[in-house]
Amino acid sequence: MPTLNLSTNVPVDAVTSSDILKDCTRLLAKIIGKPESYVMISLNGGVPMSFAGSEEPAAYGEVISIGGLGAGVNGKLSSALAEILESKLSIESSRFYIKFYDVQVILISFLGFSVYVLLKSFLVVPTGVVVFYMYVNKVLGESLMVCSADPLVHYNLKLLG
User: Fold this and answer.
1) Which EC number(s) does the record attach to this protein (predicted)?
2) Which DSSP state fits 106?
3) Which residues of the chain have pLDDT under 70?
4) Which residues belong to CATH 3.30.429.10 in the chain?
5) Span 3-102 CATH architecture
6) Do the Cβ atoms of 103 and 64 come closer than 8 Å?
7) Which residues have CB under 8 Å from 15's CB, separation 6+?
């Protein structure tokens, strides 16, 4: 469930917005190590914003994830996001902040349920969802029952064991 909420005072057209959404989705998935199918990106352009008393191009971002964050990952994300903001929106790296939230599973909802509640349930789900639940389960250290005929699921269960 890695999520990036990004706000900037730079107006963002539809083409640039689409490029940024795609680039950031790939970036978060790769660096945090989670499937792109769980990544959410929110981009708000043209937001009234001042940084250091100036209304020059600036941005503020928040990265939220259940696990996967830490000093090394946060540094890589900061650097990669700086490149995207500079190349796509001409925002200098000295003109934005990113706040990182490594949240507990009990604070997140998915499919209309608390992820924690879903972890306590018997799951019949496709591979990508199983991998997500297995990862979250590994963080919690609780038992998880998974029903799937997919060999990849069984392989991943073995790896995460």
Assistant:
1) 5.3.2.1, 5.3.3.12
2) G
3) 106, 109-161
4) 3-102
5) 2-Layer Sandwich (3.30)
6) yes
7) none
Q: Are 58 and 104 in contact (CB under 8 A)?
A: no
Q: How many residues does the chain have?
A: 161
The residues annotated as belonging to the active site are 2
Question: What is the predicted pLDDT for the residue at 14?
Answer: 85
At residue 48, the 3 state secondary structure works out as: coil
Reported as a single tens digit per residue, the pLDDT across 73-109 is: 999 999 999 999 999 999 999 999 999 998 877 677 6
Which residues make Cβ contacts (< 8 Å) with residue 100, sequence separation at least 6?
62, 63, 69, 74, 77
Q: Name the pTM for this structure.
A: 0.70
